[in-house]
Request: fold
Amino acid sequence: MKRYEIILQLEAENELREAFAYIHAESPQNAASWLSGLYKAIDSLEIMPERCALAQENEDVGAEVRQFVYHSHRILFTVEGMKVCVHHIRHAAMQTHASARSIAKREAGKKKP
Reply:
């Protein structure tokens, strides 16, 4: 079975830390469990990441943007060859246009010679 390499972009790492800090401030006992589950969700993308639905951001970006919903957060990623690039970890209530802009900018940078 093919395994994909998971790449967590810096922006996604920062969003993960912010989400954890928020949850920890509200409920320290739930924060560690949430974080562990989030990492398991991200790690599960090693196998068949295409199983995840296309995200709304997909309409605004020149690459297939997929999402994995974990509780109240969306893990936004693209599949590039044998790599899964996690671009954002966003609360589901957050608007999509900011995610789409940053992913589109990153994808456009890859296409330059």
Summary: DSSP finds three helices and four strands in the chain. The domain at 5-111 is CATH 3.30.2310.20 (YaeB-like fold). The radius of gyration is 14 Å. Helices lie at 10-26, 28-43, 97-111.
